[in-house]
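Task: sequence design from structure.
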């Protein structure tokens, strides 16, 4: 063993030196060179830092640098996140997205263009004017629809979600709700009064007829029966004048 190589290292190093740091790592750890000024120091890590990707070999696991425009990568030729000013597309970092795609500044990726989509129109509303459906001849009716898919930055904009048109209705008077209700209550009261009046009149009529009947019965009981007048023709006997 070289005099500068030590076996009693710390921080995951299997072998190390005072000048270069880790020379080899313990199993499953990744070896990576970190630059400090003009000097490179070897360190052993459980995973590769940002801007590096790991490769496992039978004798050593190493961290290698990603491409200059790549912030994190899976392999040397497949980036998973780009540095500022670049957009990720199919593992590559591009300054401008291909045709048919647009740059998403939130995810810093090239994504498909999404156009706006709207639902079908609703049926036309009743013809109204100032919130009323009566008391006028010409009014307006409307219909609406909903946005089911909002567009992306380069997508087609959304259409109008409401339409209005003129309409004509049969002119009719508006009946106030309170007045109509009051009229109905008055009619119901008058009907009840008429029924009560008829009932009272019928009761008075029955009482009067009953009273007349009772009066006749009493009169027939108290007055003496009249004797039947004799028949004068029958009482006068024939007179025999021949003697």
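Answer:
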């Amino acid at each position: 063993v070289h005099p500068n190589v030590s076996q009693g290292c710390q921080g995951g190093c299997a072998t190390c030196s005072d000048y270069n740091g880790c020379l080899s790592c313990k199993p499953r750890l990744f070896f990576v060179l970190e630059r400090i000024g003009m000097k490179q120091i070897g360190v052993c890590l459980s995973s590769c830092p940002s801007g590096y990707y790991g490769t496992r070999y039978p004798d050593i696991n190493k961290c290698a640098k990603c491409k200059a425009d790549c912030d994190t990568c899976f392999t040397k030729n497949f980036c998973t996140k780009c540095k500022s000013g670049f957009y990720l597309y199919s593992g590559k970092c591009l300054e401008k997205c291909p045709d048919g795609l647009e740059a998403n500044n939130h995810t810093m990726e090239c994504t498909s263009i999404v156009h706006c989509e709207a639902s079908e129109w609703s049926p036309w509303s009743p013809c109204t004017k100032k919130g009323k459906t009566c008391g006028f001849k010409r009014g307006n009716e409307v219909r609406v629809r909903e946005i089911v898919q909002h567009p992306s930055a380069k997508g087609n904009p959304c259409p109008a979600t409401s339409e209005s048109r003129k309409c004509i209705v049969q002119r009719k008077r508006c009946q106030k709700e309170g007045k109509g209700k009051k009229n109905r209550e008055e009619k119901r009261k008058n009907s009840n009064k008429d029924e009560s009046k008829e009932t009272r009149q019928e009761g008075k009529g029955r009482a009067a007829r009953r009273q007349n009947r009772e009066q006749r019965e009493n009169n027939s009981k108290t007055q003496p029966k009249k004797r039947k007048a004799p028949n004068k023709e029958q009482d006068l006997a024939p007179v025999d004048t021949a003697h």
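Residues 177-222 form the longest helix (46 residues).
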